[in-house]
Amino acid sequence: MQEKNLVTQRKEQKRNQILGLIRHSRQPLSRFDIKKLTTYSMTTVINTIQELIRQNLLIEDACSENNRMGRKPVFLHLNPSGGYFIGIEFNIQKMHCVILDFAGNVIFSRHSDTNSFTVTREFIEQMEHHIKNCFDYLQAEKKKVLGIGIGLPGYIDMEKGIALHYAYIKDWIAVPIIKILEEKFKIPCFIGNNISSMCLAFKWFGQYRQEKDFVFVSVRTGARSIFFVNGEPYLGKNCSSGEIGHIKLAGGHKLCDCGQTGCLNTEVSDVSIYHK
């Protein structure tokens, strides 16, 4: 049984790597291109791609360049209608919801105010409301939803699927977000810190796609930075890295939500600016 699981994991890893290469490449890729980039055998590449085509996740497109010599390559593309992803992201002020098609295009977007919410139950009910709206929008295509991604504020345990703490929601402590939503919608759910998720979006879909090392800085209800090192984000324990909002300011005396005084957040966060 364990050996079978390892085989399945390796197969899944190869499948995801090939999909990732096609998704993030600036140029269309052929089977031969993928073989060079992965060092997999051509048999493995061909079999994996054929399976993805059967699953309607990839489509083929023959090269149209008339001046190309020899046999023209067949390029591979993600099939936009092959599947869909639902994304939710929020902080104390707003909640955003989107549907992405399989090629990463936003096909539906909504947002709502959360500044009147005070307890965990209200935020979870609003998440559920947005997800139901996404299913209603997709109608018969809702069976193609592959996963729900949640960008959460504060500290989280990604492995256990638990939201640990967020200072602006008084009872937001050890909330089992993944368990709640998977039991409700019967679809795989994934969580990450919302700023970390933004950083990944800039890396995967923005102008930093080819960059290996950079710093992403966000200022919203707090100030945070994410360091990308050798193409990977450094998130730290419980997604706590880069909390620059709690750097002490010279002469600072205002009380921060962390219980200390003089933190950067007390001056630059949008909540602090609003109160000013």
Number of separate helices:
8
Query: How many strands in all?
Result: 14
Helix and strand sequence: HEHHEEEEEHEEEEHEHEEEHH
Task: Profile the largest sheet.
Answer: 5 strands, mixed
* Structural Rg: 22 Å
| Overall mean confidence score, pLDDT | 89
Question: What structural category characterises the helix and strand content?
Answer: alpha+beta
Envelope shape: globular
Tell me the span between the first and last alpha carbons.
61 Å
Descriptive key words:
alpha+beta; globular; 276 residues; single chain; 8 helices
Written account of the structure:
- The structure is a single chain.
- This protein is α+β, with helices and mostly antiparallel strands and 276 residues long.
- It is built from 8 helices and 14 strands.
- The chain has helices at residues 2-24, 31-38, 42-54, 120-138, 177-185, 194-205, 265-268, 270-275, and strands spanning 29-30, 58-62, 74-78, 84-90, 94-101, 106-113, 145-152, 155-157, 162-165, 173-175, 189-193, 214-219, 223-229, 232-234.
- A 5-stranded mixed sheet has the order 6-5-4-7-11. A 3-stranded antiparallel sheet has the order 1-3-2. The chain has a 3-stranded antiparallel sheet with strand order 8-9-10, with no helix packed on it.
- β4 and β5 form a beta hairpin.
- α1 (2-24) crosses α3 and α2 (31-38) crosses α3 (42-54).
- It is globular, with a radius of gyration of 22 Å.
- The N and C termini lie far apart (61 Å).
